[in-house]
Amino acid sequence: MARQNFVGLVVSQGRMNKTVKVRVQGKVYDRRIDKEVIRRKDFLVHDEGNVSKEGDIVRIEAIPKISKRKAFAIAEIKVNKGQQFAQYEDLAKQRIKQEDELEAKKFIENREAFKSIITQLEDLRKLDQISHDITSGEQDTEANYQNLINEVNSIKAKYNIKSWPTTEPIIDLELNEPVYTSEAERRVYHMQEILDKVMNDSKYSELKVKILNEKLKNRPIDEIQKSVQKNVLRKYFMDERNELPFAI
What we know:
Number of strands: 5
Structural class: alpha+beta
Radius of gyration: 38 Å
Strand order of the largest sheet: 1-2-3-5-4
Strand content: 15-25%
Low-confidence stretches: none
CATH superfamily of the largest domain: Nucleic acid-binding proteins
Distance between the termini: 85 Å
Number of domains: 3
Shape: flat
Helix content: 40-55%
């Protein structure tokens, strides 16, 4: 006698060893409503090699019962969509791992740079304290005085300091200039400055009137609220295609 066969979709895989859940869908005539309806049934199916993946379309056939609920086995993988999904999953995991490694490397570099800055600040504070001790004459003996002078000279040589106190920059803390990843970020950062100049500086009054007339259809400027004018100008200058009237 021919074995019972079904074609279905693997809806669950990996929760049990050598077992997948296959959903079989078919049409059944329902006499109560006198029409065909779609019926779905899930089967626990034996997968000896754990080869099928979630999303595969497989053909299953009846076998002698292996357990109470498992009486079918994978006979053929018809469409291996699940294999493609698994490849996409693996690729996504690799990319996430690479991004995590890059972030970790960047974090370590920033931490080392921060440690270096802290060390430099501590050295300069020490240099300041030693200089104060020398000028105040708190050292007891000539040997102590010479030791302080040697420490001062070693710190000066380390950071190439010609004299102390000094007005020359020694440590670059990179706090003055923000880092922009795009032109839009740069404009957002300076937007208040741009709006203040265009709104209040007479040099840019002609440009302001031109922009407002284009957007507000020649309405009298005096009748337009300041907040509305600012919103129109902000939208205009946020568009990277429009040039700024001055360098920022």
